[in-house]
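User: Here's a chain of 330 residues. Predict its fold as tokens.
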Amino acid sequence: MSKQLNWGVIGAAGINGAVVPAIQASSTGRVVAIASRTQEKAQAAADKFGVPTAYGSYEELLADKSIEAVYIPLPNHLHREWAIRAAEAGKHVLCEKPLALNAQEGQEMADACAKAGVQLAEAFMYRHQPRWERIKNVIASGEIGELRVLRGAFTFNGAANKGNVRFNADWGGGSLFDVGCYPVSTARFLLGSEPVAASAHALFSPEHDGVDMMLSGILEFPGDVALTFDCGMWADFRNFFEIVGTKGRIDIPGTFLPNGEEADFTVYSGGQRRVDKEPAPNQYTLQADRFARSVWGEDTPLVPPTDAIRNMRALDALLRSAREKARVTL
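Assistant: Prediction complete.
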């Protein structure tokens, strides 16, 4: 049997329904414990996912010497505290996006993990799909010409659920942090550069603690290339990304949540249309495997803290622009 990484999960969040079974199905990991604020909630989660140990506090899980790595799906305002405490306990950390409430907090998390000699990665699961290297190769080949604009959207309508943690301003709620971070991350990844300016307009809803329920943004990149995107938690479901060049374009349906077992993308160039058929392996499992290999020194995290902090800087600028109704330079 191949070696396996022992995982602990700090929190009984809904995203565990996708992540925990994916880790259990991986070739490199097993979830050995899950913690919540109460023993009852932790036990219910452990029973649901077949996890052998349930802890009624996060501290108890961090004291478990058999646990080598933790996954943190807590509300955004708790990421910094528990990532740092996990690092101090000698645990490697896979933290849900966004990494923190701002770039400064993200840097503090990165510093703590570096000091403790543990890995820290942001859980942008979409990046682990193999199709992204194929897409980058198409761009690099020049088939669609010089890039002019990237366009994306990630929206859903959850506005009726007023008790959702995403609607708590003090907890880092809002659509930009929840789903807008994806197109921002994608643009930075594809362009291989950082934005130089940000402009945004948002619907800050009084009905939802004043968080940005919808946000439309523009990020300006070197070379006169821009990302235009919108994100929201009060709109019909959308999940796409488009790359537009001087000679063609690439459409990526199901960009962040692939449809079924396929992760196809379509290239339009020279008056022709070509569908690139790509499989869609479980991206959460791929994420767990990559993280385990990084812990063992066999690979590096796909979304290391340097990348996560740079993404936070762009998010910080977009939120500032939306609040101040002004273009913000980075």
